[in-house]
């Protein structure tokens, strides 16, 4: 008897939460609350500018939201598409701190043809996709074992005629739950756990994609990881268990991802007349999926964030 994808996903979420509770409860230390808060505040203050909100690297976003009324713009060109895809992605992300613990935003991903790859079905200009999202900080004692918890709801919608490698013609609904915990004995080390469910529905206002070319996929991922970041240079390791459900089959994949994250010091970027925050990310990823060949990849990304609020005109008080 085939088990419903939703039932299977709920079972996986429950199992992952139980495993996270069991593992971390063994490491709890009494009297850690005051020390941990101080350590976490020092870590965030030493590695980030307050406007930038949560720590991000590659496709992982740790818990946290922008402060109220903060406004930022992020640009992250995917130059790693050059050797692998027939198109190049140029994601822009606009984020706004709507209230304390509440952030709203949207990501816009246009694409252009890749001059170094000849895939005619992907070599075209396109508006790509738009992905509005909402992030909400959850109460810290929600599971009693994590310091921070954030829930994100994201909706991905294709625009124009995007390549199938970008989005498969369906509207993607993505609820994401992320937890993090700072180790008391080593305040530079953060343990985190991410639960993500990627559910496909018919794209609104668009024709249904050809089922012979595009298979409908529902994807569930459990991603525990560790980030060690004593200063501007940090290191991470992440393991992802991915469950993909298609109309004809389902399969599991094991993904191992390790790399470095470097926050370019502000004095260096300012000396080059580069405003905002610059971050360089480099990593190695191994993907082992059932009934698929093992895939190895090395990716380097550059991320830029700008403080839009600082560019807005200030309201000066009445002159005397």
Give a verbal description of the structure.
- The protein is mostly beta strands and 320 residues long.
- The protein has one domain (5-203, 212-309): Porin.
- Helices cover 14% and strands 46% of the residues.
- The protein contains 4 helices and 15 strands.
- The strands form 2 sheets. Strands 3-5-6-7-8-9-10-11-12-13-14-15 form a 12-stranded antiparallel beta barrel. A two-stranded antiparallel ribbon has the order 1-2.
- Residues 1-7 and 9-51 have low confidence and may be disordered.
How would you concisely characterize the structure shown here?
The chain is mainly beta. It has helices at residues 5-25, 33-47, 266-271, 308-311, and strands at 56-57, 60-61, 71-75, 87-89, 92-99, 102-113, 126-138, 148-159, 170-182, 189-202, 218-228, 233-245, 250-263, 277-289, 295-307.
Keywords for this entry:
12-stranded antiparallel beta barrel, 320 residues, 4 helices, Porin, mainly beta, two-stranded antiparallel ribbon, 15 strands
């Amino acid at each position: 008897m085939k088990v419903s994808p939703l039932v299977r996903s709920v079972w996986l979420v429950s199992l992952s939460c139980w495993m996270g509770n069991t593992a971390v409860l063994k490491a709890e230390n009494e009297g850690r609350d005051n020390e941990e808060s101080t350590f976490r505040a020092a870590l965030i203050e030493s590695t980030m500018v307050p406007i930038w909100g949560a720590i991000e690297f590659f496709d992982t976003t740790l818990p946290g939201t922008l402060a109220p009324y903060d406004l930022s713009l992020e640009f992250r060109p995917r130059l790693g598409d050059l050797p692998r895809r027939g198109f190049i992605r140029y994601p822009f992300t606009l984020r706004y701190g709507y209230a304390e613990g509440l952030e709203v935003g949207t990501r816009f991903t246009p694409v252009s043809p890749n001059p170094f790859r000849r895939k005619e079905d992907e070599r075209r200009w396109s508006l790509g996709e738009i992905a509005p999202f909402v992030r909400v900080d959850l109460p810290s004692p929600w599971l009693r074992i994590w310091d921070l918890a954030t829930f994100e709801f994201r909706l991905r919608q294709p625009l124009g005629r995007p390549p199938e490698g970008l989005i498969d013609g369906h509207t993607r609904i993505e609820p994401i739950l992320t937890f993090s915990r700072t180790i008391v004995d080593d305040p530079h080390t953060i343990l985190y756990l991410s639960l993500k469910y990627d559910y496909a529905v018919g794209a609104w206002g668009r024709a249904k994609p050809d089922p012979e070319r595009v298979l409908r996929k529902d994807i569930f991922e459990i991603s525990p990881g560790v980030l060690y970041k004593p200063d501007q240079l940090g290191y991470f390791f992440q393991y992802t268990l991915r469950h993909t459900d298609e109309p004809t089959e389902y399969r599991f994949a094991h993904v191992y991802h390790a790399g470095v994250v470097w926050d370019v010091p502000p004095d260096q970027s300012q000396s080059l007349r580069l405003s905002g925050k610059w971050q360089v990310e480099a990593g190695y990823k191994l993907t082992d999926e059932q009934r698929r060949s093992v895939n190895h990849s090395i990716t380097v990304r550059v991320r830029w964030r700008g403080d839009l609020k600082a560019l807005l005109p200030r309201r000066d008080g009445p002159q005397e």
